[in-house]
Amino acid sequence: MLKKRITSFIKNEVVLFCVIVLAIITCFFVPIDSEYLNYFDYNTLFCLFCMLAVVAGLKSTDVFDLISRKIIGLFHTRRTVILALVFGTFFFDMIVANDMSLITFLPLTYIVLHTTNNDRYLAFVFIMQTIAANMGGMITPYGNPQNLYLYSYYHIDSLEFFGILLVHTLVAGALLLICCLFVKNDPLTLKDDSAIQLNKNKLVIYVILFVLVIATIFRFVPYLITFAIIMIVMLFLDRKRFREIDYSLILTFFFFFIFSGNMARIPFIHELIFNLVEKNTLVTGIISCQLISNVPTAIFLSKFTLNYADLLVSVNIGSLGILISSLASLITLKEFLRHQPKKFGEYLILFTSFNCIFLAFQLLVAYFF
Q1: I need a surface site. Which of 16, 61, 78, 275 has the fewest CB within 10 A?
Q2: Which of 285, 319, 320 is nearest to 304 (CA)?
Q3: CA dist 63 to 67, 99, 189, 195, 309, Å?
Q4: Low-confidence residues of the chain, pLDDT below 70?
């Protein structure tokens, strides 16, 4: 019975299982101590829970189904709908962090594709949205967490910040557009066009909570206050939604913080990156992102270099590459496996291929502009 449960857990939670294994392995190199408490971005963890709870509540009102129909009715065809979803993620990420942008848009994307018999495009669109989320927010200091940290740490002028990443943002947008233009522009039809009944009272409450979470992401409201409000409201209004929160995603972030924090403290890794950063900050930053992801890389390498321009570029375009280079990529993978669990291998190959192509173009831009 225990063996069956473990097998079922690995099969259903392959991402979480892998991150737990990686975290445990690094614990042999870095024994657990009080420093572990500094690994976690508590604002991210609490905002993640709050956003997942609010999105679960919004789903229950059927507002995503209504929005998906509006999108289909407005854009009509497969290509234009996919462009709207991808660039919606791209521009929304300029307002909120990349992970929150994906949590908001991925459920909507699934509904749009599933209700129009286009499930075969799910992997492609999810991958494009992940790239859009990682690349769209890099032009603003608050679009990605690593940007906010470096912007404050180096006291970078806003116009200079914008100028450093403008070309990379434009190139990312152009590449996304080119990729999406290869999608056949066939008309879309709904599998079911029956009337949708919105729970308007509940919708208003969840929209207010959604705005509250956005304000918390911008740090206008302390995350503990938002967490307490959402807990109280949902306990009295809609406690069933607590069962629909993806707790395994929160645990994935939790263990990934342990893994990346430990990696930065392993002497061999620390010494290797220290030696490399003196030679080439840009390349070292990108390599480091593939090892410990983008946010820990920004924090870690900022202690070794004054070349903030190359470091800023590296931790943004370094979000491209393999799955662990950005936590946002783990969010997309989790959502994809929820709908198509048997296509992990196919997704991984497609994800890595597109990300490496985008990264190669961004490296060319970094060296020639």
Answers
A1: 275
A2: 285
A3: 6, 21, 19, 12, 42
A4: 1-3, 9-10, 192-193, 195
How many separate domains does the chain show? Answer: 1
Is residue 14 in some structural domain? no
- Residue type for 232, please? I
| Tens digit of each residue's pLDDT (9 = 90 or more) over 106-158 | 999 999 999 999 999 999 999 999 999 999 988 887 777 788 788 878 888 88
Three-state secondary-structure class, residue 82: helix
Q: What DSSP assignment string belongs to 87-152?
A: HHHHHHTTTS-HHHHHHHHHHHHHHHHHTTT-GGGHHHHHHHHHHHHHHHGGGSTTTSHHHHHHHH
User: CA end-to-end span of the chain, whole Å?
Assistant: 59
SS3 290: helix
Q: Which of 83, 134, 98 is nearest to 354 (CA)?
A: 134
Question: What is the reported pLDDT for 330?
Answer: 87
Instruction: Identify whether the C-beta of residue 312 lies closer than 8 Å to the C-beta of residue 157.
Output: no
| Greatest pairwise CA separation for the chain in angstroms | 63
CA distance 141 to 152: 9
Dihedrals φ, ψ of 187, to 5°? Answer: -70, 150
pLDDT at 283: 92
Strand-pairing partners, residue 77, are: 187
| Token representation of residue 306 | 């004054």
Residue 345 within any structural domain of the chain: yes
Quick: pLDDT tens for 248-274: 878 888 888 898 788 878 888 777 777
Neighbouring C-beta atoms of residue 227, cutoff 10 Å = 18
Domain enclosing residue 262, as ranges: 62-197+246-368
What residue type is 119 in one-letter code? Answer: D
State both tokens at 98.
Answer: 């990349």
308 domain-assigned: yes
Strand partners, 187: 77
137 contact partners, CB below 8 Å, separation of at least 6: 93, 94, 97, 98, 101, 143, 144, 147
pTM for the model stands at 0.85
pLDDT at 2: 65
What's the one-letter identity of residue 61?
T
Is position 108 within any domain?
A: yes
